[in-house]
Amino acid sequence: MKFLAITLIVHAPDPVTGIRKSTGDRFREVLDNALLAEELGFDGFGVGERHERPFISSSPPVVLSHIAALTSRIRLFTAVTTLSLLDPVRAYEDYATLDHLSGGRLELIIGKGNGAAQRDLFHVTPEDQWDRNAESYEVFRTLWRQDKVTAATRFRPELVDAEVWPRPLQQPIRVWHGSATSKESVDLAARYGDPLFSANVSNPIEPYAELIRYYRERWEFHGHDPARIAVGAGTAGYYAARTSQEAISAYRPVFEGQLAFQKRLGLEPVFPTLEDFVERSSALVGSPQQIIEKVHGYHEQFGHTVLHLHADAGGLTDTQHRDSLALFQSAVAPVLRREIPDPPFPWGPVQAGPTPVPVAADR
């Protein structure tokens, strides 16, 4: 199994202290967490993309480029690249450049993105967002693989023998498809034979497991080898301590602060108590053995071989944050690496495979 640390770069008051860091300090915290993730032995570090409050993660290529300059081993992920909002040509230029600057350590997780405010900002509607996402991915994918591209597009000017530079380092790049609540992303991933990354954060396990089962069905429908399926999954929270009592005690103020923040935003909590959150959500809060058992429980339904943890302290003290991540790498990760297989492909530059049928052919 492989492990990522991921941040959406939320810029909000600390859920426990109520203090909000400056924008500059928040970005420096992201860089420090990326360095910590590499130091502790995480396999990847991901930066989300959002274009609305309370996030300041509107430019993942810039942040990841800085992280690439500070690190040497850890793989760099987008989590997610919101292709429904972006010009695929411009997105390609940014990420092909980052591919070189990172020495081929880049992987993409793509998705349409959520939130009415960012849809309004980019004039994307609920009715066309999935078509935009699919078209942008088709164009992006083709640009990565071909030196000259012709594409009759609906949502941007058509391309005729277009040459876009620089040409990438990895050929092709691995692209994961972020999956949260709908079948459209799952269908797109299965059609192209791409890996799936389940958000697995906001709800209990059932809706995510259902989408992953659907992904496996569609994967086989499109004629792909079942042995090549790769699934990743997120977690709703993380804190490990030597005993479950220590973990629950330390995490309670974090959860209560997050609960209050949700209520201020007018959101109805899915998990109203910490005990319910630990029991029914994907949160990993407890002793190392409890966390190992919970990951196995999710693996029985997901079959996932990649797991992400939150990179941010999110209300924990710096010492709690570092010690908990270190405990994960010393007491949890080694066991899960032994007991759950790695993804069915090398954790490095992608090797080219067969070209699937374009999405447009199925419309």
From TrEMBL:
Region (Disordered): 344-363
Keyword Oxidoreductase: yes
Highest taxon of source: Bacteria
Domain Luciferase-like stretches: 1-303
SUPFAM superfamilies, sorted: Bacterial luciferase-like
GO MF annotations in UniProt: monooxygenase activity; oxidoreductase activity, acting on paired donors, with incorporation or reduction of molecular oxygen
Keywords annotated in UniProt: Monooxygenase, Oxidoreductase
Gene Ontology cellular-component terms listed: cytosol
Alphabetical list of Gene3D superfamilies matching this protein: Luciferase-like domain
InterPro entries according to UniProt: Bact_Lucif_Oxidored, Luciferase-like_dom, Luciferase-like_sf
Transmembrane domains' residue ranges: none
Protein name: LLM class flavin-dependent oxidoreductase
Source organism phylogeny: Bacteria, Bacillati, Actinomycetota, Actinomycetes, Kitasatosporales
